[in-house]
């Protein structure tokens, strides 16, 4: 079944291409070959402020690039979020993006005091593709993939997105060309399936 897929490229460097950009390109090609409709968000190219107060988070008006990102996420059945692991979690710019986008009224809605908020993004699934310098097994088994799990539960799951699957790609700096091509092929295959 064809899906609407929004790809969020979360590398904060807008001035250079990284392996994550190639992964996003291959995921998009695979998704289009699989008959899915695709939209893309390049977080590093968006101009938006940091949130600094609870009042701004709850009542402030999002900047136009954030509204456009919200539209692309609302349109989607599936999100593919591709980013590098920095200090065990997502880069600060990507976190700032999700703080701006996943505001009350869009991603969740406050209900009665003391109750969990209503999840407004139910019905969507997600795939996280995370690159890192350390071996992926070390991050998953020694560090328990803490940053990825927090993202899955406390941001995506909190708003109703699920299931969330993750692909961890380690040893980025030590990979040879054959290994890189194998990962690009694997991620392209995920795009074809819309997973």
Description:
- The protein starts with a strand and ends with a helix.
- Helix 1 (19-33) packs parallel to helix 7 (177-193).
- The strands form 2 sheets. Strands 2-1-3-6-7 form a 5-stranded parallel sheet, sandwiched between helices.
- The protein has helices spanning 19-33, 54-59, 64-75, 92-101, 136-142, 146-156, 177-193; strands at 4-9, 37-42, 78-84, 108-109, 118-119, 125-131, 164-169.
- The chain is α/β, with parallel strands linked by helices and 195 residues long.
- The mean pLDDT is 94.
- It has one domain (4-193): Flavodoxin domain (Rossmann fold).
- It is built from 7 helices and 7 strands.
- 40% of the residues lie in helices and 18% in strands.
- It is globular, with a radius of gyration of 17 Å.
Record keyword descriptors for this entry.
single chain; 195 residues; alpha/beta; Rossmann fold; two-stranded antiparallel sheet
From the N-terminal CA to the C-terminal CA, the straight-line distance is 12 Å
Mean pLDDT: 94
Low-confidence stretches: none
- In which order are the strands of the major sheet placed? 2-1-3-6-7
Report the helical percentage: 40-55%
Query: Approximately how much beta-strand content do the residues carry?
Result: 15-25%
Using the CA coordinates, give the radius of gyration.
17 Å
């Amino acid at each position: 079944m064809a899906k609407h897929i929004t790809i969020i490229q979360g590398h904060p460097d807008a001035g250079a291409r990284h392996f994550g950009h190639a992964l996003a390109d291959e995921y998009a090609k695979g998704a289009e070959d699989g008959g899915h409709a695709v939209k893309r968000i390049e977080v590093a190219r968006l101009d938006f402020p940091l949130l600094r107060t609870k009042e701004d988070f709850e009542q402030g008006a999002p900047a136009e690039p954030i509204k456009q990102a919200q539209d692309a996420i609302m349109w989607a059945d599936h999100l593919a979020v591709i980013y590098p692991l920095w200090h065990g979690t997502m880069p600060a710019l990507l976190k700032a993006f999700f703080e701006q986008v996943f505001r009350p009224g869009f991603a969740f809605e406050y209900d009665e005091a003391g109750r969990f908020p209503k999840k407004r993004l139910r019905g969507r699934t997600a795939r996280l593709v995370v690159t890192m310098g350390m071996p992926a097994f070390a991050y998953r088994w020694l560090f328990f993939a803490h940053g990825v799990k927090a993202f899955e539960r406390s941001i995506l799951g909190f708003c109703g997105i699920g299931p969330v699957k993750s692909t961890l790609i380690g040893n980025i700096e030590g990979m040879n060309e054959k290994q890189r091509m194998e990962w690009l092929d694997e991620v392209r295959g995920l795009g074809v399936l819309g997973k």
